[in-house]
Design brief:
Elements lengths: L2 H21 L5 H22 L2 H24 L7 E5 L4 H9 L1 H7 L13 E7 L2 E11 L2 E9 L10 H5 L2 H4 L5 E3 L17 E3 L2 E5 L1
Parallel strand pairs: 4-5
Antiparallel strand pairs: 1-2, 2-3, 3-4, 5-7, 6-7
Helix pairs in contact: 1-2, 2-3
């Protein structure tokens, strides 16, 4: 037999352990749970094959915990009750602090945004998960067009697109006289075509008719 044939079980165990460590490095909560689940299931199989039953039990328990959290996160992904949208002042101290803390990541995903350009006439919405701010949408009026200055989601919740809870309730913009939403060009990996809220691509931007 080849060396690989003699040591495949050890390699499988090392793979499960490496995947477990790699999962702990993830910042996105859903990705962490999925990778941790895959690692736990791999280690269930490995420890069952070598007969280490306490480790089988522990990894079965962690797999069950991951499955429960994954099911809950997927169930809440598009649930209005899971997230709250708060309108805030565009120059409020907390919002300014949030934008400063995430400045590097914001520039990576929306290079054209400048927080120093905000003024009191802009609209600002924070998307909250409990007491944690998970997203921010900033809008500037251009006649009856709502120009999106920023649509940002924190890394932990980037698998959930919480900005959709701003766009889903179009009445909050329509009641202010807006007839169209226009996103800025140059956004990295925009998510609007996955929302099912009516956004359509026009060149490098997305448009939503209200």
């Amino acid at each position: 037999m080849t060396w690989l044939g003699d040591h495949w079980l050890d390699l499988f165990g090392w793979f499960g352990s490496a995947l477990l460590i790699f999962s702990l490095l993830q910042t996105r909560v859903l990705r962490f749970r999925l990778l941790n689940l895959a690692a736990s299931l791999s280690l269930v199989v490995f420890n069952a094959l070598v007969g280490v039953w306490p480790m089988v039990g522990m990894n079965l328990a962690t797999s069950s915990i991951n499955l429960w959290f994954i099911a809950r996160m997927l169930r809440e992904r598009h649930d209005d009750t899971a997230f709250d949208v708060l309108q805030v002042g565009p120059t409020d101290a907390y919002l300014c602090h949030f934008l400063t803390v995430h400045e590097t990541d914001i520039r990576r995903h929306q290079p054209g945004f400048d927080a120093g350009d905000l003024h009191d006439g802009d609209l600002a919405f924070q998307v909250e998960k409990g007491d944690e701010t998970v997203g921010v949408v900033l809008i500037r009026r251009d006649g009856d067009v709502a120009r999106v200055l920023l649509d940002y989601v924190t890394p932990r919740f980037r698998d959930f697109s919480p900005g959709e809870f701003v766009w889903r309730r179009a009445s909050r913009l329509r009641d202010r006289g807006f007839r169209k939403v226009l996103t800025p060009p140059g956004m990295v990996a925009p998510y609007y075509d996955r929302l099912g809220t009516g956004f359509r691509r026009e060149g490098e931007s997305f448009v939503l008719n209200l």
